[in-house]
Amino acid sequence: MTLTVRQFACLSDNYGFLIRDEATGMVATVDTPDAEAVLAEIEVSGWGRLDLILNTHWHPDHTGGNERLKAETGCEIVGPEEVRRAAPLDRVVVDGDLVRLGETVFEVTAAPGHTLGHVVYRSIKDDLAFVGDVIFALGCGRLFEGSPEQMWDSLNRIAAWPETTTLYCAHEYTASNARFALSLDDRPEMKAHAEAVFAARERGQPTVPTTVAAERRFNPFLRAADAADFAARRAAKDGFKG
Ligand SMILES: [Zn+2]
Question: How far does residue 59's CA lie from ligand 1's centre (Å)?
Fold first, then answer.
C-alpha cells in the first residue's frame, strides 16, 4: 500500500478522506465537505500540507470547502465541470482521465445518476476507489439528476471491478440501508450482515469503507435483476420508512 487514507466523520453524516502518497508525501482531500474539518485533519495527521482536491460531484457537502482550502494551501482543484456550479475548479476531468498524486495514479470513471457529472476515482495499484454518492454500503445515491438506466450502468461499472476493491463511500447511511435491504432479502447471510452493521453502529463504529465483494453479495441495488427492477427498488427506497 503506497497510499494512506485517513477517514473522518464531518457535517451530519459525511465522511471526509485525507490521503497521502507515501512515496512523495503529497496530500489530497477527496471532496471538501467542511474546510474546517479538513484543516483539522491535516493538523492531527501531521502531514503538514494539502496539494490536491479531488471532487466527485458538485453538491455543496462535497465542494463547500474548495474556496477556503485553496486560499489557505494553494492546492489544485480537480473535478468534473459541474463543480463550477457551486465552487472553484482548476482542472476538469472526464471519463478515462488520469490524475496523479505523487506516484499514485487515479483513474477517473464517469458514474452519472446521482448527478449527471459525477465521477469516481480509483487507484488500481492500491485496489481502492473513492465513490462519492454513487454507491453506499448496502445502498446507492438518490437520482437527483440522472435516469435509473444511467445509475444502473454506473453501479455495474463499479461492480465489475475486482471483488477485493475497497470502496470509500461519502456517507454513513448503512443502518438505514440495511433495514431496507432486509425488506427485500431474507437470506440468513443478509440477516447476519445487517446485524453486524447494527452492532457496529451501536458501538459508534463506521461501516465505511466497504468492498466490491460485500456489495455484490448484499447491496439490494446491485442485486436488482435489470434496470427496470433497479428503478423500482430505488423508488421503493425513496419512500421507505424503516
Ligand atoms: Zn451528493
Answer: 5
Please state the domain extents for the chain: 3-238
For residues 202 and 225, what is the distance between their CA atoms, to the nearest angstrom? 33
Provide the CATH topology of domain 3-238: Metallo-beta-lactamase; Chain A (3.60.15)
Question: pLDDT digit string (tens) for 112-130?
Answer: 999 999 999 999 999 999 9
Instruction: Calculate how far, in angstroms, residue 114's C-alpha sits from the geometric centre of ligand 1.
Output: 7
Q: For 117, what's the count of Cα atoms within 13 Å in the CB-facing half-sphere?
A: 17
Ligand 1 mean position to 171 CA, how many Å? 9
pTM beyond 0.90: the answer is yes
Over residues 185-229, the pLDDT tens digits come to 999 999 999 999 999 999 999 999 999 999 999 999 999 999 999
- CA-to-CA distance for 197 and 202, rounded, in angstroms? 9
Tell how far the Cα of 115 is from the centroid of ligand 1, in angstroms: 7
**Which residues, in sequence order, are CB contacts of 213 under 8 Å at separation 6+?**
163, 164
